[in-house]
């Protein structure tokens, strides 16, 4: 039996390809399905099933395109109600793929339809569990997402279900079983996920806080719900897309891969009011960009930050990328449901410059520059890292406005005087800088390499204390 984890770092997402004796199954695939089709072709295997552990919130699954292109049967666990043809399995139902078996274990809690799939090898040995968002390495799935789609499913009710699922369905399994989760560290679907992407169940029983043997249900619920931050706004929209269906990725790629000259790009922006996303690196964007464009760099957690910062997945988008990066940008947007890219700037930003179009820029300084500035008239410093990062260590008197909350707190940024922006390394602060520029601020500078560089100076810092915050 071949079990292959296909990990995509920018979404901290793991899909699984399992093959035996010429038949294959794919679990929780991403939107672009060609990698799975190529793996099956290489093995001379037919993809028989697409197993979905639940209706995902943080990405749009590729199950519908796999059904269309490979003839695969879509399988959900109990209680799922997809709006398209699919098999809704019963708890305990067995599916055969080649010489191995996949057993359905209904594990409600993250969502009510959440299901774990037990892999049983050719010799009848229980090999591993594909857990979706029920059990991560070091964590379990957050139980507060389904209520954003079905209001009566409170986080307390779901947490109670998850406690029962873990104790009654997962923990009784053999310690040597391998846990194959849907996400790793960096995903917003949990709060304490490990960087490891698989482990034995026995080790998780010893190290995962949520699997403590002596934990009561009340203790579990309290500990699980403590410290949860608000989920990204696009999550409920992705859930509905996964339930109701969506356009084929082929259609989305054809629509988005429309090269536009600078004049055509400018006209499209004016006529459609599309959001212009510039996916270049922060240092290149800062030196020159199209006025009113937003920088979300393709080299970082691009899709996640698009999802955090753009409320409506139906938003029309125009792209500015490095030449040759257009297809990658459209694909990564589609992974989180942003399917309405309507074109890109042909030739990239250089073509805009050559056309003598209007250009804006953002001033940047080094941490050493900031150190010298602060010796004179001190400037207000805005730190756009997460609150947990800020609380751990920050520049004295800095104000914490997490990037994903910036649109709700624009009034905190002064229109008079000067201020300074920074994050950890410069990626997030350039997103913030481009948003502020778009909204009319021009009285700030961004710190190159952010807090990583600030820590190398003598700028006073506070550690593990309550933050100074204006929020």
Automatic annotation (TrEMBL):
Chain ranges of the Rhodanese domain: 270-361, 375-463
Keyword Metal-binding recorded: yes
Keyword Transferase: no
Coiled coil ranges: none
CDD domains: POD-like_MBL-fold (cd07724), RHOD (cd00158)
InterPro entries reported for this sequence: Metallo-B-lactamas, Mito_Persulfide_Diox, POD-like_MBL-fold, Rhodanese-like_dom, Rhodanese-like_dom_sf, RibonucZ/Hydroxyglut_hydro
SUPFAM superfamilies, sorted: Metallo-hydrolase/oxidoreductase (SSF56281), Rhodanese/Cell cycle control phosphatase (SSF52821)
Record key words, sorted: Metal-binding
Name of the molecule in the record: Rhodanese-like domain-containing protein
Upper lineage: Bacteria, Pseudomonadati, Bacteroidota, Flavobacteriia, Flavobacteriales
């Amino acid at each position: 039996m071949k079990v292959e984890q296909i990990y995509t770092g920018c979404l901290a997402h793991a899909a699984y390809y399992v093959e035996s004796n010429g038949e294959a199954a794919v679990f929780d695939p991403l939107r672009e399905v060609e990698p799975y089709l190529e793996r099956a072709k290489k093995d001379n295997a037919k993809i028989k099933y697409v197993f979905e552990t639940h209706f995902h919130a943080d990405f749009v699954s590729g199950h519908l395109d796999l059904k269309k292109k490979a003839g695969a049967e879509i399988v959900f666990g109990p209680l799922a109600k997809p709006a398209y043809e699919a098999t809704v399995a019963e708890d305990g139902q067995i599916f055969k793929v080649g010489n191995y078996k996949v057993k359905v274990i209904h594990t409600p809690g993250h969502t009510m339809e959440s299901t774990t799939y037990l892999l049983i090898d050719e010799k009848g040995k229980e090999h591993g569990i594909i857990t979706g968002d029920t059990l991560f390495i070091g964590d379990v799935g957050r139980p507060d997402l389904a209520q954003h789609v079905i209001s009566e499913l409170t986080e307390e009710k779901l947490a109670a279900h998850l406690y029962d699922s873990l104790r009654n369905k997962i923990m009784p399994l053999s310690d040597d079983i391998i846990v194959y989760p849907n996400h790793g560290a960096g995903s917003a679907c949990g709060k304490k996920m490990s960087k490891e992407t698989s482990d034995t169940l026995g080790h998780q029983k010893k190290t995962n806080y949520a699997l403590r043997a002596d934990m009561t249900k009340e203790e579990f619920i309290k500990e699980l719900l403590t410290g949860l931050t608000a989920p990204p706004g696009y999550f409920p929209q992705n859930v509905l897309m996964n339930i109701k269906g969506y356009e084929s990725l082929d259609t989305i790629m054809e629509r988005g891969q429309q090269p536009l000259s600078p004049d055509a790009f400018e006209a499209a922006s004016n006529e459609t009011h599309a959001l212009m996303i510039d996916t270049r690196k922060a240092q290149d964007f800062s030196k020159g960009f199209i006025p009113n464009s937003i920088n979300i760099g393709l080299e970082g957690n691009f899709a996640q930050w698009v999802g955090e910062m753009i409320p409506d997945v139906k938003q029309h988008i125009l792209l500015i990328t490095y030449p040759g990066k257009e297809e990658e940008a459209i694909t990564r947007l589609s992974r989180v449901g942003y399917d309405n890219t309507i074109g890109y700037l042909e030739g990239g930003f250089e073509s805009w410059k050559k056309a003598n179009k209007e250009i804006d820029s953002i001033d940047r300084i080094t941490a050493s520059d900031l150190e010298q500035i602060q010796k004179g008239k001190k400037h207000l410093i805005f730190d756009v890292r997460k609150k947990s990062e800020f609380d751990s260590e920050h520049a004295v008197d800095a104000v914490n406005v997490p990037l994903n909350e910036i649109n709700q707190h624009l009034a905190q940024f002064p229109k008079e005087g000067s201020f300074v922006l920074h994050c950890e390394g410069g990626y997030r602060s350039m997103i913030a800088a481009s948003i502020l520029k778009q909204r009319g601020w021009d009285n700030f500078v961004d710190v190159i390499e952010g807090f990583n560089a600030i820590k190398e100076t003598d700028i006073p810092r506070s550690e593990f204390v309550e933050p100074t915050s204006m929020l």
